[in-house]
Amino acid sequence: MASEQVCRAGVRLAQGRTLAHLQAVHATLLSLLEDVHLRTWRPPAHTTPESPEWVVTHLTAYYAFVTAHLGGKPPALPGEYVRAHDSMFGPGGAAVRTPRPSASPRTERSPAIMLRRMRRGFATMLRAGENLTPSQVLLPPAGAMAEYAPDRLACLERAAWHEGWHTAHLAAIRRARGLPPAF
């Protein structure tokens, strides 16, 4: 009985640290977007991985992807987000489960709307990770994702790594645009 409590406490600790790391990296990523020239943003369908709007679109789709694999309910996304995701990873994405398009696939040209959708997606993913019980944390991810992560804790760890990777990605985009270094 005592060893089971120790195990649960260890899982909770790992889960909490991973979620805290994910939040810290996300805060850095958001700070890198603060002074990017938002008025030059283009609709997601016309972007490349070298643009901040592509990163925002990609991360929004990724947050829906992770939310689904944590067993949460991902938000619906505009069709162009799904197309941008599929263009990089192929139909079904990096582990088969593509976020579903929303019923209103209008083009979102406004950076404010795109950033709001990204923030909402991140918050939904974070809640899905926080709501996992210790026994759920150690379950395989929902869906066909074994090649990506053996369990939901690993899924959260990969999400933190992925967030860090795109934080560095945005730092490089900033330098290419002549903005001050991030770090």
Q: What's the arrangement of secondary structure elements?
A:
Blueprint: H1 2-33, H2 52-69, H3 79-89, H4 111-130, H5 134-137, H6 152-176
Explain what the structure shows.
The chain is mostly helical and 183 residues long. The protein is 60% helix and 0% strand. The protein has six helices and no strands. It has helices at 2-33, 52-69, 79-89, 111-130, 134-137, 152-176. α1 (2-33) packs parallel to α6 (152-176), α2 crosses α3 (79-89) and α2 (52-69) runs antiparallel to α6. The radius of gyration is 17 Å and the shape is globular. The model is unreliable at 93-106 (pLDDT under 50).
What would a concise description of this structure say?
This protein has 183 residues and is mostly helical. 60% of the residues lie in helices and 0% in strands.
**Number of DSSP strand runs:** 0
DSSP strand (E) fraction? Answer: under 5%
Structural class assignment? mainly alpha
Query: What helical percentage do the residues reach?
Result: 55-70%
Largest sheet: none
Mean pLDDT: 80
Unreliably modeled segments: 93-106
Q: Topology as H/E string?
A: HHHHHH
C-alpha end-to-end distance: 47 Å
Shape: globular
Number of helices: 6
Radius of gyration: 17 Å
